[in-house]
From TrEMBL:
This is YpdA family putative bacillithiol disulfide reductase. NCBIfam families: Bthiol_YpdA (TIGR04018). It comes from Croceitalea rosinachiae. Keywords: Flavoprotein, Oxidoreductase. PANTHER family: THIOREDOXIN REDUCTASE 1-RELATED-RELATED (PTHR48105). The keyword Oxidoreductase applies. Pfam families: Pyr_redox_3.
């Protein structure tokens, strides 16, 4: 069985940053990614533009050149892919980590394809795999999706977009501009305050002029083949509908963390237990990196502010190894 100083679970931007740092500092390492390189970014909407400017998404100070100040998804795919290939990072793709078990001093890592042994584990599994579901009848119909990809698909269709944050607002605007008949269903009283500052006026103006319909303080109650029911302050309304995009956020895989023995806070935030000085969790030898550290607070950590986790963790591993 192959043995490493550290196995990194997840080949997103932060997992890659950890691999690069481990390589630089002379640790043997393996990144295991269940999809392609930066799988989450690969699954983002095709026209997606980051809210961060490119230099804030850089890892290890490797320059990220983009056409505009804020890069697009395809530029980020290119950037992170080139980092992996030109640095010859040790990464296994399309291989899912299924189980991690401590056996004496080492961790035994079982994946969909093989087993490995490692002295340390970095969990950098992100939050994009599990959507926050609506839990209503009809949510499992094929016309309902929790992921948005391409506006062309919705042209000339009656589309309900559920949500009020960046993903929902970007999808509503793009689909409207490709000829969809868009209705926004917003649980609160307004478009989210975190919506990108240059996008928020656009959506508010489209709603005010009636190009996009919006129901505030409204929730979807049932989805059927050609209609949806929504509950509003004025009672129940039934709308004709072809497709539903339920873009109500995502959450980390908490079961996976629990199985690793990582403690979560007892409140609704489900914050994982780790030492912010080393990023080591309550399980000795298991470190947390990237957006996973925020539990249900998925807006707390992002690439910009969590790329620093890589040097912090690798330094902590080196210090623990030399003790
Ligand atoms: C639409 C959108 C726009 C965003 N814009 C920005 C922005 O402008 N700036 C910014 O800083 N952040 C932005 N973010 C957030 C940013 O994308 C995330 O913070 C970032 O992806 C976090 O990186 P990560 O490496 O922690 O997690 P991820 O990128 O999610 O990587 C986790 C990886 O782990 C893999 N994985 C999960 N489970 C397993 C397993 N069991 N075995 C093997 N592999 C596994 C996944 O496939 C995934 O590739 C945006 C997010 C979204 C959704």
């Amino acid at each position: 069985m192959q043995d490493f100083n550290v196995i990194i679970i997840g080949g997103g931007p932060i997992g890659i940053a950890c691999g690069l740092e481990a390589k630089k500092k002379g640790l043997s390492y393996l990144i295991i990614e269940k999809g392609p390189i930066v799988n989450s970014l690969f699954n983002y909407p095709i026209n997606m533009q980051f809210f961060s400017s490119s230099e804030k998404l850089e890892i290890d100070e490797i320059p990220f050149i983009s056409k505009e100040a804020k890069p697009k998804r395809n530029e980020a795919l290119e950037y992170y892919r080139r980092i992996v290939t030109s640095n010859n990072l040790n990464i296994q793709l399309f291989e899912k980590v299924e189980k991690v078990k401590k056996e004496s001093e080492k961790f035994n890592v079982v994946t969909s394809k093989a087993s490995y042994s490692a002295s340390n584990i970095i969990v950098a599994t992100g939050f994009y795999d599990l959507p926050n579901t609506l839990n209503i009848p009809g949510e499992d119909l094929p016309k309902v999706s929790h992921y948005y990809k391409d506006p062309h698909f919705y042209a000339s269709q009656k589309l309900a977009v559920v949500g009020a944050s960046n993903s929902a607002i970007d999808a509503a605007l793009e689909c409207y501009r490709k000829g969809a008949d868009v209705t926004l269903i917003i649980r609160g009283p307004e478009v989210g305050q975190r919506v990108k500052y240059w996008v928020r006026p656009d959506i508010i103006n489209r709603i005010n002029e009636g190009s996009i319909k919006a129901y505030y303080n409204a929730t979807v109650k049932e989805i059927r083949e050609t209609e949806i029911d929504i509950e509003t302050t004025e009672g129940k309304i039934t709308l004709e509908n072809d497709f539903v995009l339920a873009l109500t956020g995502y959450m980390p895989n908490f079961d996976f963390l629990r199985k690793l023995g990582i403690e979560l806070s007892n409140d609704e935030k489900l914050l994982p237990n780790y030492n912010p000085d080393s990023m080591e969790s309550n399980v000795k030898g298991i470190y947390l990196a990237g957006v996973i550290c925020g539990g249900m607070e998925t807006h707390k950590w992002f690439i910009e502010n969590s790329r620093i986790h890589a040097p912090v963790i690798v330094d902590a591993i080196l210090q623990n190894t030399s003790e």
